[in-house]
């Protein structure tokens, strides 16, 4: 199935170039299970061949992710939490979203705040689902758009660079993307613990200063 999806992605990009990249990345960010790990590296390969522009590919990918995320954000914003959870339970399997993954994204957003809209764009699964809890929480649309675009830009740039660097062997790292996701997730968790510990120390210093 993954091979078939990959071939469809490749054929679409070859025939429509930037338009295809935009459609695929927008759908991915709108909760449709289309792997950006195929879309962007292959586009990077075409950029290396001189058929596309590297930075236009990156910009199109990031912009498309933003546009697609607005749709998921709108669902969270206009629907009640119970309705969204019911939809995930009933139809999540069709977009490869489990109730567990949705609840995890919701917990992350509530625990770590709006910055997750940026960091989650570098994480597997959560990177697309985070738009739902962001909308549900009524996150400022301007901030959501900025954080989403910046995170998506970094992700798109990295994947495009992979394809650009490896050329015709752009797909050689596809089996290793899952391991890469795990490494990024681990680094993200470490950062969160460091950030919370840093904030706690500041609060303790303020309290000690006030006690004096």
Question: In words, what does this structure look like?
Answer:
With 212 residues, this protein is an all-alpha fold. It has one domain (2-173). Helices cover 78% and strands 0% of the residues. The protein has helices spanning 2-16, 18-29, 36-48, 54-78, 81-91, 99-112, 116-119, 126-129, 131-136, 141-166, 177-211. α1 (2-16) crosses α3 (36-48) and α3 runs antiparallel to α4 (54-78). The longest helix has 35 residues, at 177-211. The N and C termini lie far apart (66 Å).
Instruction: Please estimate the helix content.
Output: over 70%
Quickly count the helices: 11
The structural class is: mainly alpha
Strand content: under 5%
Average per-residue pLDDT, rounded, comes to 77
The value of Rg in angstroms is: 19 Å
Biggest pleated sheet: none
Give the SSE string: HHHHHHHHHHH
Shape: globular
Cα distance, first to last residue? 66 Å
DSSP E strands, number: 0
How many structural domains are formed by the residues?
Answer: 1
Output the keywords.
mainly alpha, 212 residues, globular
Task: Give a brief rundown of this model.
The protein has 11 helices and no strands.
Outline the fold blueprint:
Blueprint: H1 2-16, H2 18-29, H3 36-48, H4 54-78, H5 81-91, H6 99-112, H7 116-119, H8 126-129, H9 131-136, H10 141-166, H11 177-211
């Amino acid at each position: 199935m993954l091979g078939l999806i990959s071939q469809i992605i490749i054929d679409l990009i070859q025939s429509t170039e930037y338009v295809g990249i935009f459609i695929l990345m927008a759908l991915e960010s709108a909760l449709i299970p289309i792997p950006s790990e195929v879309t962007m590296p292959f586009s990077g390969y075409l950029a290396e061949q001189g058929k596309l522009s590297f930075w236009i590919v990156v910009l199109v990918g990031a912009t498309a992710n933003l546009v697609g995320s607005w749709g998921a954000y709108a669902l969270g914003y206009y629907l009640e939490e119970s309705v969204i959870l019911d939809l995930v339970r009933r139809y999540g399997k069709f977009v490869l979203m489990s109730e567990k993954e949705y609840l995890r994204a919701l917990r992350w957003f509530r625990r770590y705040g709006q910055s997750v809209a940026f960091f989650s764009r570098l994480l597997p699964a959560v990177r697309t689902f985070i738009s739902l809890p962001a909308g549900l929480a009524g996150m400022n649309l301007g901030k959501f758009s900025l954080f989403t675009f910046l995170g998506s830009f970094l992700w798109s740039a990295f994947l495009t660079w992979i394809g650009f660097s490896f050329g015709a062997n752009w797909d050689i790292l596809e089996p290793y993307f899952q391991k890469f996701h795990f490494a990024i997730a681990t680094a993200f968790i470490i950062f969160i613990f460091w950030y919370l510990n840093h904030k706690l120390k500041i609060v303790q210093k303020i309290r000690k200063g006030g006690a004096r």
